[in-house]
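Ticket reopened. Same input as before:
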Amino acid sequence: MSGKFTDHLGRPIVVVTGMGVVTSLGKGKEENWDALTSGRSGIHQINRFPTEGINTTIAGTVDFMETDEVSAPEISYAMAESTSGEALEQAGFGTGGIPGPLFFAAPPVELEWQHRFQLMSENIKAEPGYEQLLAAARANKHERMHQIIQLGTIAYRIAEKFGTKGLPISLSTACASGATALQQGVEAIRRGDAEATLCAASDGSVTAEGLIRFSLLSALTTQNEAPEKASKPFSKDRDGFVMSEGSAALVLESYEHAAARGAKILGVIQGVGEKADSFHRTRSSPDGAPVITAIKQGLEDAGVTSSDINYINAHGTSTPENDRMEYNSLKAVFGEDIHQIPISSNKSMIGHTLTAGGAVEAVFSFLTMSEGVIPPTINYDNPDPDIPLDVVPNVKRAASVDSILSNSFGFGGQNACLVLGSRVN
Amino acid sequence: MAKQDVWVTGIGLVSCFGEGAEHHWQTLGANPAPAPIVDCETYKPYCVHPIPEMDWSKQIPRRGDQRQMENWQRLGTYTAGLALEDAGIKENEELVSTMDLVVAAGGGERDLEVDASIMADSLNRNDRDQLLNDRLTVDLRPTLFLAQLSNLMAGNISIVHKVTGSSRTYMGEESAGITSVENAFKRISAGQSTHLLVGGAFNAERPDLLLSMELGNFVYRGEAKPILARQESGGGMITGTAGAFLVLESADHAKSRGAKAYAKLSGVGSDLGTREDAQTNARMDAILEGLGAKPGMGVISGASGCIQTTKLEYDTLYRHLGDDAAIRAFTTMIGNPVEANFPTGIALAALAIHNQGFYAPFEEAENESSSTPEEILVSAIGHYRGEGFGLIEKI
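Engineering reply: fixed in the latest deploy. New output:
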């Protein structure tokens, strides 16, 4: 069924022709890759706001973007602009625009406390509360404040700036969002809706309130003393994830279109798998069935078997529950082979970039294949004996990798798995 | 693979008029149309179309589940249940476990009392950042975070109704509803999905949400008026609490299980750009041309009432359908349910097609319809960004 430009099911092959990334490790692929393969952590004490009284005082904030104000929407936009620009330029769509739509994994944005305080100051005589803020809003149009807190705005701005086609999709599947954005781009190309898509994800939402919310769910590590050591996926003393910021953008393109214009192929998205979980709002089914199904579907969609996978880019959040669940689910699919396949968690160095995670980790996965180097899982000093995986501990490893499974799981029962390949077979 | 026809086989609706697909046809389809139900006191100077009396237990049986949500998620989860029931697949484990889900969502409720109390405290503090830490660590309820997460409406639908194929949440005001239905349509057309639940809900009775729109001065102030009549008083949006979910299926899938179908969704088009008049007109023209808009089609409009966008929408529709086109702005009756706007329009159009009728004018300025339309355009022109149209027709 497959032809030169189609896959095992006769669908257009989807390749990657441009990538951009920003994390706490730096701006762009080069800075990130250097840090990642050196085993350097981007996690640090938070200095964006005081942390006294909050159990967690560390994060992987991105503090080097220039923005009009320090707020989740502005930081998220700035990172998305940087990564989208980087990806489009690499793909050769930097000037004429990309002939396709934008799928954007959008962070949660809303009015922040700084905005509430500002509105209060504009209507100082009124009783404090929403009546007061509404009166201030009525008195003066706050165009910019309105725009940045709409959930669709970042995608609208990216679409307008880079000339993507049509109405962009702003999506959220919580911590699986980045993978979902790619999945949607793949589906659009397979449908023949577009020859190319820009799939981007961004999350710059480390605010005091955001941090406190995750903290109240006991999801975050409290190992504040040595921030760079706090994210320790698959270690015995892991106690939660590190909230982080980041963005990634990938240009997906039909192989036929990319080949016709002579674009450099950076990799292939071979398959996507997804399965929702109805067990609990924040916890996965104890039997792992939905995650197992998502992985199996991803492999099947890619037309490969588990034995074709030679590296796994783990979700690996460093929470006690996720890492155990991920191991058990992988073991159910891969059997005993799972103990031989290298698997590492980028989150040991960049923390959990939340909305952006799946896309950021896809960029790193493609670099893993093109560079022939697997980034390590750092802080692996105290292995969890119940998770006997080859986590590529602490030091990068040279390896020839051609097929990667990348996992993303999120609150709300979201599970998405990508199968990524180094080249068109 | 040949394109699949997309059928509407289930409708869940909740608005100020009550709940249920048939109930909405009976009520909104009456001649003359009923008077809108609108509350202009509680949030003065703003009007909102309020939530009807709800017995959540009818679609969300476990109290524990109800407690994990606030009204926005409850309304969506409830309405999704209505749609599944209407399609005859609720509690059909095989069908719901393979069903795809696309939810158009905003953000959930904040604790307004806590917010107001922190604002009051802030007047006596110079270290407001520290105040936030002191108060939020104590006053935020952990469960409220989950009630705020956009994708947790979908999460709750999975938990309560066991819809567990794929699950995606789309955001971005009215655009969320447009892109949700459009993507659902494309996936089913292309054979990427066989049966899918799509929709959204909106809780208008929230000062924090009124604020997020009033910052751009998009909200209408004063006595409630219908969409067209409102144009003469400066225009603006009146929001409405509502939920709308659709079960969409490929024709083959629907036929194989002997499902009833309301109507065929034969196309959806959308676009984005700045709201400069000529460009906005050009984008809307292109979408309508793509859908084959022509005289004789009815229109179910989700017009926001904001003065420039609503005028552009109506001018464009009249240009394509003729000056006597029967346009019904459902937002006159139930308000703008923002993310749920487009799904609501699709639902109301499908009900009219199914019942071989159309709606009597929702206000005096709307044209009488000269005949019963067999094709109905559905419009959702975002109050701030994003434009979409859909076409519903007889099977």
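DSSP finds 16 helices and 14 strands in chain B. Chain B touches chain A through 83 residues (CB under 8 Å). Please confirm and we'll close it.
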